[in-house]
Specification:
248 residues, Rossmann fold, two-stranded parallel ribbon, 17% strand, binds NADP nicotinamide-adenine-dinucleotide phosphate
Length: 248
Amino acid sequence: MRHTALVTGASSGIGLAIARELARVGVDVVLVARDEGRLREVAASLDTGTEVLAADLLTHEGLEAVAERVALPDRPIDILVSNAGFGLAAPFHESSIEDERRLHELLSFVPLRLAHAALPGMRARGRGWILTVASFAAFIPYGSYSASKAHAVNLSRSIRSRYAGDGIRATALCPGFVHTEFHERMGIDEDGPDWMWASAEDIARKGVRGLRRNQPVVHSNLAFAAIAKGLQLVPDTWQGSLINSYRD
Ligand SMILES: NC(=O)c1ccc[n+]([C@@H]2O[C@H](COP(=O)([O-])OP(=O)(O)OC[C@H]3O[C@@H](n4cnc5c(N)ncnc54)[C@H](OP(=O)(O)O)[C@@H]3O)[C@@H](O)[C@H]2O)c1
């Protein structure tokens, strides 16, 4: 049976790589992002069934149009990939509250809204997969970005535990640093030791594999997985000083 996935943020970076990986394993894809021209180029490059849905997920109309497509009963979405996102360069006390609202909405509310749209149909069909691109930041005290990503991870885990009996699987993909347009869009350099960095293709492969294997959380590599576990034993103040010393 052929499946269809909807991928948000499919015009670049991790979302584009996930769309490619899904196409490679024979899944049709609905591509969502704001830049319609780029989405059309992506669609033309994929050897699978494609649909382009240009939408700004930070507008009510854009988000509801995508939610409507997710819930459409006659063209079911079997796999929902909530990936679209961005980061803020300014520290929390200096960023504008409008930027904070946009960040929180795109990283926390949009995945919630789309999962809410997807679940009734998935439950009725007795199957469905939800892949949420969160971040390793979800496991550290790293500003409002990490708070939004922690929300995304916990939502994914909650959906997974509540709806497993309905045939629904949910995986939170939690990469460390990934070479994409993310840092350039924030206006900061790609920085840090090599082991912390991965390619979008590698992360996409691990995310799709994790979803197939029904893994709750997928990290970039074993080092990040071990650090996420180990940090649970480290007081927040120590973690905070470590992160701040790295950042400054
Ligand atoms: N790169 C990293 O180091 C890293 C690490 C951990 C987690 N992540 C997470 O990975 C996810 C993907 O980021 P990326 O690294 O692949 O960055 P990216 O290359 O900048 O891609 C971001 C994607 O999100 C889309 N997008 C942004 N705002 C949108 C909006 N308002 N409505 C619809 N689409 C929107 C962008 O497309 P348009 O501009 O065409 O709309 C683009 O396709 C994000 O959730 C990010 O937090 C990234």
